[in-house]
Amino acid sequence: KKAMKRKAKKKAASAKAWNVRVDQVKDAATKKAQIRSHNLDQRTMGGAKGANLSSKRIKEEDGADGKKERRRRMGPHAGQGMNRAGFEGKKSGFINGEGGKSSSSGGGGGKGK
Asked: Taking a C-beta distance cutoff of 8 angstroms, is the pair 48, 32 a contact?
């Protein structure tokens, strides 16, 4: 008798767990179908909206016009690309004057003038 009761209890618990699993699988399938249909709709629009789509989630637009706010780089190498040694300031013409080869420009190391 006790063994039969234990078996029935185990069976009920197993059925409950199985139903939970079935529900989870069903929810995951509907979510995947929603994502798939959303991605197909976005792809028919084309452009940037149809380019970078995720198969895991539906991405919402950020901001009113859809542009993301870009964050500045943090850390020890944050500002290195902008001011490397030897590249400070804007370029203002060539080092050896404006024109091409001319005898009046002082560069070159010729023997006599």
From this structure: no
Q: Are 51 and 40 in contact (CB under 8 A)?
A: no
User: pLDDT of 25-44, one tens digit each?
Assistant: 999 999 999 988 988 888 88
The type of residue at 1 is K
Exposed / middle / buried, residue 39 (Cβ in 10 Å: 0-12, 13-18, 19+): middle
Q: What single-letter amino acid sits at 24?
A: Q
Q: Give CA–CA dist 95/55, Å, rounded.
A: 54
Q: What mean pLDDT comes out for the span 106-112?
A: 56
pTM over 0.90: no
